[in-house]
Design goal:
alpha/beta; Rossmann fold; Ribosomal Protein L25, Chain P; 7-stranded mixed sheet; 13 helices; disordered N terminus; binds adenosine-5'-triphosphate; binds magnesium ion
Length: 566
């Protein structure tokens, strides 16, 4: 557990945001109501960072008997679309979060927002400005230099109202005019230097409002008003919005809205060996570095789901990392540890041979078959038993046989013995090779008296997995590794771009693997521990021709930790 999450006696997490809410409730602020929201822009799929925000906002609503709105912040139509809206809804639900009767859209408030803009003009707090983008930048000043007033700042209320109405009616071209707040061009906070409220965008079709508008509100103006209209009490966002808070408050104070939510900032989740920025994820998808938004190597929720991460594992991860105001980068091992703990408990055991080597049991009759009982879970009897077919021809993994064994090698060697898991002890009598001296087959004999029994008079130390060749299911197995070699690819400080750090070996595809026969009953998304190999799921979306695809969710142990310690 991190030092940021001290469970209270009721076992709910505690963090600085919950402390603020506790204090508010004590003072009966907001009449004891707690209302939050999760406000994604539908311009990409959600990633693991969003999971932190989702679980924080929905978790608070649940624990304080309030509610949390899912609100699409959809003010930038040319990057947004309905596919992203639907994908986001699916991911939020998959995480186990519920948004009530209705999904909200900022675009629901376009009329209301326009009325608020009119109010600002009437209060002499907004004006139409004709400066072009370049001039605006110049007038804005810098961190060390105050800005200058726009020459259009002193237009009359009447003139501004007229121009805004004509902007709305489509009389002006894109970029020719904007509506700006009239605040303070000399403010130390650049966000307060007469920020833009509305821009003109002709010819875009918005996924909710169609072609109705050619005037679109900016994020800062839209966000606080949407919060206020929904009666949000605590508007929780990430730290980069800290400098926008004065503006958030300025809008609501100036417009004297009925509700004035409190903005609270927390630190973003960053994860090693990956990127969590929608812009960069979009580029990875569009440039073909990965197969799509649900590529199991991506930190998207869809990718994690396809890889076999469960909602429970993701929730546990978010709980372990806690909520603070300090920026940090979490090790991938923390996430993988959560997946492992979850699957160790919940995934039934199966056998699968990834690099097959044929074994013929020469003293087992050709037409004989038998079914051997095997436990589905070594610790948990409630998983029950299954029956494994055994026959004369088997596959074992190439790694489990060595002609010249390294020191301490306990598996199969020429004239040595090994136990087949859940089955008999076999001895390797003969090694068959091809013309290139590759081992292609082993001739072995089995000891019929060793099923469930120790062999008499000798010790057999190694246990290996196997499948019956005749009964096995052929499958494609995909082994995923980190997508980036560098722990912080977008901040590597070596002059390279994040895309330069892509790990060329992040995906290995094994096309001829053999799975035990019981896996014919698996359904898409099912998860298993392939004994001695790791945790795998049956790909919920895809097949390789008529072969099933199994994705490796996570290895049995943390291989990178071992490498780091070497
Ligand atoms: P990105 O930088 O990936 O494009 P964003 O902030 O633009 O993310 P939004 O769709 O606006 O994406 O995010 C919705 C909510 O999720 C916001 O409240 C945002 O603060 C939060 N969020 C985004 N990324 C993270 C993160 N890495 N960790 C925690 N919360 C995040
Ligand atoms: Mg954003």
């Amino acid at each position: 557990m991190s030092d940021t999450e001290h469970p209270k006696s009721d076992n709910k997490p505690s963090n600085f945001i919950r402390n603020i809410i506790d204090e508010d409730l004590k003072n009966n602020k907001n009449n004891g109501r707690v209302v939050t929201r999760f406000p994604p822009e539908p311009n990409g799929y959600l990633h693991i960072g969003h999971a932190k925000s989702i679980l924080l906002n929905f978790g608070i609503a649940e624990d304080y008997d309030g509610y949390c709105n899912l609100r699409f912040d959809d003010t930038n139509p040319h990057k947004e679309n309905i596919e992203f809206v639907e994908a986001i809804k699916k991911d939020v639900e998959w995480l186990g979060c519920h948004w009530g009767d209705k999904v909200y859209f900022s675009s629901d408030y376009f009329d209301a927002l326009y009325d608020f803009a009119v109010q600002l003009i009437k209060k002499e707090k907004a004006y139409v400005c004709d400066l072009n983008a370049e001039a605006m930048r110049e007038y804005r000043g810098t961190l060390t230099k105050a800005g200058k007033d726009s020459p259009f700042r002193h237009r009359t209320v009447e003139e501004n109202l007229d121009l805004l109405a004509r902007m709305k009616a489509g009389e002006f071209e894109d970029g020719s005019k904007v509506l700006r707040a009239k605040i303070d061009m000399a403010s130390a906070n650049i966000n307060m230097r007469d920020p833009t409220l509305y821009r003109i965008r002709h010819g875009v079709v918005h996924h909710q409002t169609g072609a109705e508008w050619c005037l679109y509100p900016m994020y800062d103006f839209t966000h606080c008003i949407s919060d206020a209209l929904e009666g949000i009490t605590h508007s929780i966002c990430t730290l980069e919005f800290e400098d926008h808070r004065p503006l958030y408050d300025w809008f609501l104070d100036t417009l004297e809205t009925e509700h004035h939510p409190q903005q609270i900032e927390f630190s973003r989740l960053n994860l090693e060996h990956t990127v969590t920025s929608k812009r960069k994820l979009t580029a990875l998808v569009n440039n073909g570095h990965v197969e799509g938004w649900d590529d199991p190597r991506l930190p998207t929720i869809a990718g994690l789901r396809r890889r076999g991460c469960t909602p429970a594992a993701l929730r546990e991860f978010i709980k372990r990392i806690g909520v603070t105001k300090s920026d940090n980068v979490i090790e991938m091992a923390v996430l993988e540890g959560c997946m492992r703990d979850d699957l160790n408990k919940n995934a039934p055991r199966r056998m699968a041979v990834l690099h097959p080597l044929k074994v013929i049991i020469t003293n087992y009759p050709e037409d004989k078959e038998e079914l051997l009982e095997a436990a589905n879970h070594p610790q948990d009897e409630s998983f029950g038993m299954r029956k494994l077919p055994f026959s004369r021809e088997l596959y074992i993994d190439q790694e489990d046989f060595k002609e010249v064994p390294p020191k301490k090698y306990k598996r199969l060697i020429p004239n040595g013995e090994v136990r087949l898991r859940n089955s008999y002890v076999i001895r390797c009598d003969e090694v068959i090779k091809d013309s290139d001296n590759n081992v292609i087959e082993l001739r072995c004999t089995y000891d019929a008296d060793t099923h469930g029994k120790k062999p008499e008079g000798r010790k057999v130390k190694g246990v290996i997995h196997w499948v019956s060749a005749k009964h096995a299911i052929e499958a494609e197995i995909r082994l995923y590794d980190r997508l980036f070699n560098h722990p912080t690819p977008d901040n590597s400080k070596d002059g390279k771009e994040y895309a330069d750090h892509i790990n060329p070996d992040s995906l290995r595809i094994l096309t001829h693997c053999y799975l035990e026969a019981t896996l014919s009953e698996a359904t898409p998304g099912d998860q298993f521990q392939f004994e001695r190999e790791g945790y795998y799921n049956l790909d919920p979306m895809h097949q390789a021709g008529n072969k099933p695809i199994y994705n490796r969710t996570v290895t049995l142990r943390d291989a990178w930790e071992k490498i780091a310690k070497k």
